[in-house]
# Entry
Amino acid sequence: MFTQLFGNYLLNRGLVTSSQLSAALSAAKQTRAKLGVLAINAGYMNAAQVDEVHNEQQRIDKRFGDIAVDKGYLSPGQVEELLTKQGHAHLQLGQALVDNGAMTNSSFAEALSSYKSENSLTDVDFDDKTGNKVDELIGKLYSFADAENSSVYTEYVSLLFKNLIRFIGDDFTPLAPEKIPSARVSFCAKQDLKGLGFSCSTMMDTSEQAFIAFASRFAGEQFTDADEMTEAANLEFMNLHNGLYAVNLSNDEGQEITLLPPTCEKDTVVGGPVYRISVVYPFGTAAFYITV
Amino acid sequence: MSVENLKILVCDDSLFVRKKITNVLKNCGVTELYEAADGEQAVEMYNKYSPDLVLMDIVMPRMSGVEALKLILADDPKAKVVMASSVGTQENLKEAINAGAFDFLQKPISDTQLETLVRKVGK
# Structure
């Protein structure tokens, strides 16, 4: 999840465009973070030193690590340590951005350093499997401070991101939440949640093309039309996500909520106010709405 | 009774879920499969076909899975009805078991869970 949140940071700061980010997220899985990016991330080398080693590699047939050790920028032990971190997803994203020419080693180094410092993140946090730090970051970005049950919304969004990773794919960038008076939806899967302490409507709206692509990923098969089956698949995603949310709410807060059968809405306006949380996938944007 | 001879009724308002479940059951060797899209239909089809196993969603339009479970058991106390829901709260679990459900599965249901279930019923 650090990758998606870091992507959000890069986008918000205007350091990359949405299409550059989408392309890099698609490529990231096939990308192994190179030693230069890893060394910058670890603070062992600066961008100028990395560029110097890269230039050296154009002239002599030696590996990055060997040249960096020769120049005294890295110790053999540090090279070994960095190689174990090649699979870190946010670094793979960084590498893909550098490879695509969307960022330079230097701009990536600066962005990563600012991101870590603004969010008090260390390398240890990126290895944290408890998810506490991710929850903290999500809580900061999606605080819903003006809402009565703000933590309920934050937990909803946090679980949504986890379920998107689990059922649809991790190649998305979440955008900042917006509060809007009403929502015009085109292809929308909607489900109402009713409880004593908390009731709301939840929706996922996409373009027709993204509706088909989202359903295809969820079902694990290729759909070509926005028909009954794609509708059923997307409604089931909402039902599954909301069901898991209801379980968490019951276990953690002792609050019981009932889910109503999900429905599909097309080309209609949903009254608000509503919170909109958009996530950008390579196949299109999915806007999730929760009524206030 | 072998798995091949089992009659199974799958009740879920989602066409997607019904298709997914019936595909797995077909792969397990089950040939006699029935589908219902809500609780009312499930009760009707149970009375008509007397299936050996019912897989029943809880949240459905017209009649919920738990209501349908109670009606089915009222006519056939030995009916094997497995409730399946994405809302696996303690409250729903208790309600289903108290109403006489044979088992409770939390969605998403994996292929392995379904295979294990039909083998258990087919023993």
About this structure: The interface with chain A takes residues 13-17, 19-20, 59-61, 85-91, 106-108 of chain B (CB under 8 Å).
